[in-house]
Amino acid sequence: MKKYARITGTGSYLPTKVVTNFDLEKTLDTSDEWITARTGIKERRIVTGQNTCDLALEASIKALSMAKIEPEEIDLIILSTTTPDKIFPATATMLQNRLGASCPAFDLQAVCAGFVFALTTAQQYIENGSAKNILVVGSETMSKIVDWSDRSTAILFADGAGAVVLSADNTTGIKHSKLFSDGSYLSSLHVNNNGIDELGTIQMEGNEVFKIAVNRLSDLAEETLNECNMSSEDLTWMVPHQANIRIIKAVAKRIKLPMEKVIQTLDKHGNTSAASIPLALDVGVRDGRIKKGDTLLFEGIGGGFSWGSVLLEY
Ligand code: ACO
């Protein structure tokens, strides 16, 4: 019998420190009005002393609790992050130890597309029968690679974590997934370190990234719906990567999806890279908007560039 990969638990965690646009006005030549109009972001959370694994742990505990899964029942942990705590071991391995799990664990790096890449990878393990329960996490401390004197990036990125438990199901779950990468875009969005002896900071050609994101994500949403023989009317919710409200609106308009069917957390979370989709998902699940049986579309695009979508029945 075919096995489906179904989300059975969600969890998220945000650091407690809130940095508002008004706070940024004090250190940067910017304004709340400009940031709100151009991005939709009003505030973001920034770590004080915590690392990526600390955030991942809190989100994971909540997802496991919702799924009613004990750490020893997890068959695999995939943690998507751009900001691992160490060069090695993988942050996922540190998470495995802190959770008290004993399964294989690895990190996956696809920047803001990381969660859809991790979910699609986990889907393969469930569908081929080699895992029953997989913990998929997106966790980031993007504040550590932001140049806080650069107003074009410092206003965007933020910290947080989201997690899901993906479990084998006989009837429904992920229906479709699609991934792409094109490394020729490196200069549009990258970190400027020259090797592992330096950390570097995010460098972005904002206008260029904006256009690429709108085009790639719109094409992807259309292709995904076509390949599933669906229209946007069949979607209950789109849960997009939270990068810029204007990107989200442009994609929704192109596929004729009303904004009332889009989960938005950008105003409060900013761009948390690999954490943004599972964070938004958890918000929608816990406030009761997303219900069992709903059809969801996730899609994200990230640095230099990777992008992808997952369509599923929740
Ligand atoms: N405050 C005030 N003014 C600013 C700021 C700021 N924070 N940042 C830039 N400006 C200025 C620029 O200097 C420019 O001034 P000029 O006209 O005198 O030269 C003016 O505002 C317009 O700049 P643009 O870059 O054209 O502004 P734009 O409308 O494109 O908005 C933004 C910039 C918000 C960065 C937008 O391009 C964007 O969102 N791009 C996509 C970024 C993104 O989503 N990145 C992540 C996606 S992938 C991932 O998540 C890794």
From TrEMBL:
Its main location: cytoplasm. Keywords: Acyltransferase, Cytoplasm, Fatty acid biosynthesis, Fatty acid metabolism, Lipid biosynthesis, Lipid metabolism, Multifunctional enzyme, Transferase. It comes from the Bacteria. It holds the Pfam family ACP_syn_III_C. The keyword Glycoprotein does not apply. The active site is at C112, H241, N271. It is found in: Cytoplasm. GO terms for biological process: fatty acid biosynthetic process. Pathway: Lipid metabolism; fatty acid biosynthesis. Signal peptide: none annotated. GO terms for cellular component: cytoplasm. Residues 106-183 form the Beta-ketoacyl-[acyl-carrier-protein] synthase III N-terminal domain. GO terms for molecular function: 3-oxoacyl-[acyl-carrier-protein] synthase activity; beta-ketoacyl-acyl-carrier-protein synthase III activity. Gene3D superfamilies: 3.40.47.10. It catalyses: malonyl-[ACP] + acetyl-CoA + H(+) = 3-oxobutanoyl-[ACP] + CO2 + CoA. The keyword GTP-binding does not apply. Residues 225-314 form the Beta-ketoacyl-[acyl-carrier-protein] synthase III C-terminal domain. Its EC number is 2.3.1.180. It is an enzyme of class 2 (transferase). Residues 242-246 are annotated as: ACP-binding. Homodimer. HAMAP family: FabH (MF_01815). The last Arg residue of the ACP-binding site is essential for the weak association between ACP/AcpP and FabH. Belongs to the thiolase-like superfamily. FabH family. This is Beta-ketoacyl-[acyl-carrier-protein] synthase III. The gene is fabH.
